[in-house]
Specification:
By secondary structure, chain A is mainly alpha-helical. Chain A has 15 helices and four strands. In chain A, helix 5 packs across helix 11. Chain A starts with 12 loop residues before the first helix and ends in a 21-residue tail after the last helix. The chains are: A mainly alpha (about 375), B alpha/beta (about 350), C mainly alpha (about 290).
């Protein structure tokens, strides 16, 4: 058939630039890894030169954990387009199963990297199983109903953590009890004690492990985005009915996104758990789930490097302003609301962009701005 | 049965009973070899109680030796108490381009939705490729080889044009989740292959230059074409097009006509389309079904449909002559109820003559 | 007798949930948003009542009225400043904003009243408990009045929504925002009114809840808020009778699982029931079926 010239005038020149996705995946990948490496170098340098205080250094591992969590949640919220309010639940599963695994392994071996990797894998597996069990029944629900059910599951998981008891007996064997304490075990041999949580964990998490985890998470999520599975997941997000009409099994792919995301959250949770000698289940409540969601939304739904930055900045800032204790969270709240209004309200957004264009010193000629990802309706 | 005049033919098939029963119809596909472009075979299916129509099985000459790709028997659906579609029968040849036309709200898209199992039919059976589709889901239907487009375009807006097609090539892309997550050599090999394949489809539609555009940013006509490509990429045996030319200008429409024919010739598939553009329908459809108020009011080739009085009535409303005729019918009914049977029978109007009055 | 006591305290707790759930359900119905700040409006209401009775020494009922007035204003303000600019931009943006508002209210309360729990004086302090069944069954005045308040509010609200012009306008807006606007309904006014009613009721719920469980902290509203939200979804979000049924059932489940199964697992059981209901009826007990046109 004769080649036709497509009428592209209707797109308009500006629209044309927005329209071309080009090598977006490659660009997104290089930016994401670049940010991770540069961030790592900057923070390490800051710590080495003493510019970054001790308190903030203590936040290095949590920063990595939150980056991984945000990236993995983005797989559900951004790429699969489902609102999940229970991500902390998977983090909790990963943390506590990782801690139990660590204690068991440490009773028999002392090579820490192996312990770390095995614990993380175990945490990922347990979280994936939890994600699978939860995902199967609920992924038929839509929109806000799915959100509330994930919230409910997050709370259920946390509640169960409150009644779990793990300990090691004198032979180094694992003891388990549900809803009652284990008798005849020394305090030092208790691993998880109900609402008190995990105690006596050997803290083997380091910033390097954190970086590795972040890179792994970004690697998996970006690769998945640019694969058969990722495309199917995004297709279902964009138009469920059309996706069914071309033979995509909606539940299967939603479940896939959910389980992979849960597994990655489990790994992050494990890193988090092995960073503290004591850890209470209350840490993994609704607020933590919301915190991760805030990272994702502020970073840009579906935007991987955006949520890396958001997670880093929003973990550092409250820590850096600790001296303004009472006002910092209030400011955080106000800033959160303002940012949401400025980025999502069309009128205000246009005004902010206009002002930014006027004062932007790096402005290129002809208003040729770098493409800004539009995130407004992706999760709508 | 070779007709001299189309109008006569309609009259004949309406009035005559050829004695073909549904059971021996299968035989007829293979054996009946009457000259002319198409063969008409009566089906056993009873006419609708109030709207008898020319319910014949219609297959283009070239498809006669093969089993039909789609057979629909007595299909119907109720929404609440409302019967949206009733007693819909259809037989579609292997490489036929069939058309489904009718006024707005006639139930055309509902039929597509039943064929693709977006809706579960209340009554009737659908045989696709010889198998009943009972209990199948939309996904199963597509896997069995039926693909469709939508009246209101449903693309994956945030994916690129190329990705839209790659998604549809999903079932022929052979790698698992682990390969997808870690980009193994198998992944690279398969991705390279489907990229080439996607480009092949884009080339047919002359859209290779737009491969990297977001689907949502394309102009309307290109979006419609992309939707057809996406459906084609699932390698269907039957392609359902829901108003493919809607919103296109005349030159785009005539290009589309060529494209549809080329798709059929190249992929040797059947196409069944809903369209309001009569030029398109009359030019490319080999068999046409006309639907009104959820019931088939006519079936046949383009020229037969164009001159069918019921079709004209459905589209343009009743002519004065027809209305008078109706009044006459009422008189007859009245007469019948009074028992003047003989005189009433003699007053019955000629079924074929009403077409003239429409002009 | 224990069983009866449990039923009564379950109904009482359920009534509180039902009243809070009303706010969630009405707001969701009209603006399709998950207003996570609603739980904190309850807390502000309770604090206002606390301030009126403790610092100013006002009568409990006047304190309740003041709390309602403050919360009504607060609800309208929140809607006007935070939610209205984001109307029509998708649920995620509004959800995060609602969470921002929730943080704001909690931290505001933290700044003003501090983190230490305050002991709330019951609204019904002077009243004596009712003894029934020959003194074996003691019913607190809080229980009776909470249940009564719930019934009165339900009836009043149902009448309001079905009989009055403003109520009908609210229903029209929740059915189809755009069409309602074309019919000359002031959508902004209707949404403001919804927030006003929801927040006013939140104040009532806050006072009733703190009368029964008299510990007041900046995070007091969070968990009841989530549970009431669960109740609203349980009954079918957007439906007023659904909120009532959902709230009562949830209250009963919570009290009974605390009494007979496990205190620690009671929340888990409540949420598990929600999930089971949604699996059987994906839009809740009385929710409307959503269908997508192809």
């Amino acid at each position: 058939m004769a080649d036709r010239i497509l009428n592209l005038k209707s797109i308009g020149s500006r629209g044309l630039k927005n329209a071309v996705k080009g090598n977006e995946y490659r660009r997104e990948a290089s930016i994401s890894y670049g940010i991770l490496i540069i961030g790592y170098i900057l923070l390490s340098l800051g710590a080495a030169t003493g510019l970054i205080g001790h308190n903030l250094q203590g936040q290095f591992v949590p920063i990595c954990v939150y980056v991984s969590l945000a990236v993995s949640l983005n797989l559900v919220v951004g790429i699969s387009g489902e609102l999940s309010l229970g991500h902390a639940g998977f983090m909790a599963v990963g943390a506590f199963s990782g801690i139990v695994m660590e204690r068991m392994l440490l009773a028999h071996m002392s090579f820490e990297p192996a312990v770390m990797i095995l614990s993380m894998l175990f945490g990922a597996c347990m979280a994936a199983i939890a994600g699978f069990i939860i995902g199967i029944p609920i992924l038929g629900l839509r929109g806000d109903y799915l959100a509330i059910v994930t919230l409910a599951f997050g709370e259920i998981i946390r509640n169960f953590m409150n009644v779990l008891y793990f300990g090691l007996d004198e032979n180094g064997h694992l003891k388990f009890a549900f809803n009652h304490t284990i008798e005849g075990i020394e305090n030092s041999q208790r691993i998880i004690t109900g609402a008190i949580g995990a105690t006596g964990t050997k803290t083997i998490s380091t910033f390097n492990w954190g970086l590795l985890l972040c890179i792994f998470t970004v690697f998996v999520v970006l690769n998945m985005k640019n694969s058969k599975q990722g495309r199917a997941i995004m297709a279902i997000r964009d138009n469920r009915i059309a996706a069914e009409s071309i033979g995509l099994d909606v539940r299967k792919y939603k479940l896939m996104a959910f389980v992979v995301s849960a597994a990655l959250a489990g790994m992050a949770g494990c890193l988090f758990g092995l960073n503290y000698s004591t850890l209470v289940p209350l840490k993994f409540n609704f607020n933590t789930s919301v915190l991760i969601l805030v990272f994702v939304v502020l970073g840009g739904v579906g935007n991987i490097w955006g949520c890396i930055i958001a997670a880093t900045v929003l973990t550092i800032l409250p820590e850096a302003f600790r001296q303004f204790a009472d006002y910092r969270m209030l400011t955080y709240a106000i800033v959160l609301i303002l940012v949401m209004i400025c980025t999502y309200n069309p009128t205000i957004k246009a005004r902010v962009t206009a002002i930014w264009n006027r004062i932007n010193p790096f402005k290129k000629k002809g208003g040729d701005k770098p493409k800004k990802k539009k995130t407004g309706k992706e999760a709508a | 049965m070779a007709p001299k005049d189309k109008r006569d033919e309609i009259r004949e098939t309406e009035i005559s009973e050829t004695g073909h029963t549904y059971e021996n119809r299968q035989e007829i596909y293979y054996n009946d070899n009457v000259g002319g472009r198409a063969v008409f075979v009566d089906s056993k299916e009873q006419y609708g109680p109030d709207e008898p129509y020319n319910d014949q099985v219609y297959l283009p000459e070239k498809d006669k030796g093969k089993a039909p790709v789609l057979e629909v028997k007595g299909l119907g659906i109720d929404f609440g108490g409302l019967t949206a579609v009733d007693n819909f029968n259809l037989t579609l040849g292997r490489t036929e381009i069939g058309g489904l036309i009718g006024p707005n709200g006639a139930g055309k898209t509902t039929i597509f939705n039943m064929l693709t199992k977006v809706y579960e039919p209340t009554r009737g059976e659908i045989f696709f490729d010889g198998k009943s589709t009972k209990g199948m889901t939309t996904v199963d239907i597509n896997k069995a080889g039926m693909a469709r487009t939508f009246q209101n375009i449903r693309l994956f807006d945030k994916l690129t044009v190329e990705e839209n097609i790659k998604v549809a090539l999903h079932h022929t892309t052979d790698y698992g989740l682990i390969s997808g997550m870690f980009h193994t050599p198998k992944y690279r090999h398969e991705e390279f292959r489907i990229r080439k394949e996607a480009m092949k489809y884009l080339k047919i539609f002359g859209m290779t230059k737009t491969a990297d555009y977001r689907a949502g940013s394309l102009p309307y006509g290109a979006q419609r074409r992309l939707e057809i490509m996406r459906a084609l990429a699932t390698k269907p045996k039957l392609l359902l097009l829901d108003e493919p030319a809607a919103g296109m200008n005349p030159s785009e429409t005539s290009e589309l006509m060529e494209t549809i024919k080329e798709i059929r010739d190249r992929f040797q598939i059947a196409i069944f389309l809903i369209e309001h553009d009569m030029n398109l329908v009359m030019n490319i459809c080999e068999g046409i079904v006309v639907l009104n108020y959820g019931r088939v009011i006519a079936k046949g080739s383009a020229s037969e449909i164009q001159s069918n009085p019921k079709v004209i009535e459905a589209y343009l409303g009743k002519s004065r002559g027809k209305m008078e005729e109706e009044e006459k019918n009422e008189d007859i009914e009245e007469a019948l109820s009074k028992g003047k049977l003989e005189s009433a029978a003699s007053g019955k109007p000629d079924a074929g003559s009403s077409g003239k009055e429409v002009g | 007798m224990n069983f009866l006591t449990n039923i009564i305290s379950g109904l009482s707790l359920g009534s509180v949930y039902a009243i809070i759930a009303l706010g969630y359900t009405m707001v969701y119905g009209i603006s399709k948003m998950l207003n996570f700040a609603h739980g904190d409006v309850i807390m502000i209401g309770a604090y206002m009542s606390f301030v009126m009775t403790q610092y100013i020494g006002a009568n409990g009922w006047i304190a309740l009225l003041v709390a309602m007035a403050v919360c009504t204003l607060l609800g309208i303000t929140i809607e006007r400043l935070a939610y209205r600019p984001l109307r029509g931009t998708g649920s995620l943006a509004v959800l995060i904003t609602a969470i921002g508002v929730s943080y704001f209210l909690q931290n505001m309360a933290l700044l003003i009243w501090g983190a230490n729990p305050k002991m709330f004086t019951s609204l019904f302090k002077g009243m004596s408990p009712v003894h029934a069944a020959g003194g074996k069954l003691t019913i607190t005045p809080e229980s009776i009045l909470t249940i009564a308040a719930n019934i009165v509010i339900m009836i009043a609200l149902t009448l309001f929504v079905s009989k009055t012009k403003a109520g009908k306008a609210m229903r029209a807006v929740s059915e189809d925002n755009g069409a309602a606007q074309l019919m000359g309904i002031n959508v902004n006014q209707s949404i403001s009114l919804t927030f006003a009613i929801g927040s006013g009721l939140a104040a009532v719920a806050g006072v009733l809840m703190c009368s029964a469980y008299p510990i007041l902290m900046p995070t007091t509203g969070a968990m009841p808020g989530i549970k009431a939200f669960t109740a609203a979804v349980f009954g079918g979000i957007g439906s007023i009778p659904g909120a009532m049924i959902g709230g009562l059932i949830l209250g009963l489940i919570e009290i009974f699982s605390r009494a007979y199964i496990s205190t620690e697992l009671s929340d888990a059981i409540v949420f598990a029931c929600l999930i089971i209901v949604l699996l059987v009826k994906p839009t809740g007990l009385l929710g409307k079926k959503i269908s997508e046109k192809v």
